[in-house]
Amino acid sequence: MTNPPNVIVAQSGGPSPVINNSVRGIVETCLESPKTFGTVYAAWHGIEGVLKEALLDLSAQPRGEIALLRTTPAAGAIGTCRYKLKEGQDEDFQRVIDVMKAHHVGTFFYTGGNDSMDTANKIAILAKERGLDLVATGVPKTIDNDVGDSEFRLIDHTPGYGSVARYWALTVQGANEENAGSCPADPVLVMQAMGRKIGFIPAAARLADPDRRLPLHIYLAESGVSLEQLADNVSDELKHCGRCLVVVSEGFDVGDLGARHDAFGHVQFSSSGTTVAQILVNYLADAGLPVGGAPRCNVCGTDQRHNMIYASTVDLDEAYKVGRQAALIAATEGTGWMATILRQPGPVYRVRYDKVPLEEMANSERKFPDDWIAPNRRDVTDAFLDYVRPLIGDDWPSVPLVGGLQRFTRFLPIFAEKQCAEYVPQTYRKSH
After folding, report:
1. Burial level of 430, CB count in 10 A (0-12/13-18/19+)?
2. Which of 33, 51, 42, 46 is nearest to 69 (CA)?
3. Residues annotated catalytic, as ranges
4. pLDDT tens digits for 342-373?
5. DSSP characters over 176-222
């Protein structure tokens, strides 16, 4: 009897608190179907793991460690990367095919955002051209919620977003308590949220104050508000309330602030280590406040995407189910699909899991709906709150502790025996 083809699961880009639960959904579903799926490997650090033939054997891991993926955040369990397979990197593409052939791989799952879906789509096309019987399936992940279309027809939201939205709801609640108490000395607190070009993350700050009782201003990258107007808005709030909380996107346009790019070519707004939040604080201080004290800033970092305590239970459950959906699609529908989450109509929040062609998702990028930005351009509308509120859930996640510390997945270093020659990815050769 011929053994079923093996599986590679990989992930790419920035992590999230729930990304590993999607991996768990894929792996557990594959292990439940030994007649369809053979050995399940994880590519160590995404597509780089395929190129370097670093394949972690997940089938050989204790099942308890796989179960712990539910509450293991970020990407430490199997690693991630920001390596992009680009046009012209023919050797890289051939290497992917060679490694998959050498390890009898018949199914490839790639978890990530729009760039990852582009990679999965390219591999699906290449495999067909090179005569490799490979099923390539995408699994959505991004805290930015920018995968899909602006009509929410292809996918309603991506796993990861509900957790970062909950993080910001609870973070702003705590920040308000401090600001209310310390406002004679620190009347303005500027908080910078992730989100290079799209405003879903900073917009979620409104969840902390849905009735708009707090002196909370929210400025998305799409707000179109100048620094001068922002300062005037804050000054008016201070005259009225005596204090002000400002949540601003890291992509907020602050004029001559320099821009740099990440490995995917995305713009990151920073210059010599100066953040948007610090630029705003400096600008407000130079403009002068109509009350005593000085502005302060808080730049939330990668904890936005790896804080398991703030994870949404809804997000955790959906991440797992979309992983299972991806495995079921691979088993029954063949290659070239991405698993999706679609919201059911009606007053009660319900979703269904479906699929969309990878070619339609590759490098797709939704926009934050302009009609969800308030007319004053420093808030969001109730329609956005109706959209986002169900995603953060109503309870805390149950995170296992050992000795007072979180217990995360720790896989044994069991790797597939290498069958191919050593290989250096093309981009590394160019840069080194």
Report:
1. exposed
2. 42
3. 144
4. 999 999 999 999 999 998 987 677 999 999 99
5. HHHHHHHTTT--EEEEEE--SS--HHHHGGGGG-TT--S-EEEE-TT
Residues 6+ apart with CB under 8 A from 30: 7, 36, 37, 40, 107, 327
What is the rounded CA–CA span in Å between residue 416 and residue 398?
Answer: 34
Q: What is the pLDDT of residue 256?
A: 66
b (16+ CB within 10 A) / e for 245-270: bbbbbbbbbbeebeeeeeebeeeebb
Element (H or E) spanning 295, and its range?
strand 295-299
Q: Does residue 197 surpass a pLDDT of 90?
A: no
Name residue 390's beta-bridge partners: none
Six token digits for residue 272: 């010599």
138: nearest Cα among 152, 119, 159, 155: 119
Residue 401 pairs in a beta bridge with 406
Average pLDDT, stretch 152-158? 95
From residue 182, alpha-carbon distances to 23, 242, 244 in Å are 44, 11, 12
Give the Cβ contact number of residue 28 at 10 Å: 18
Residue 119 and residue 98: Cα distance in Å, rounded? Answer: 16
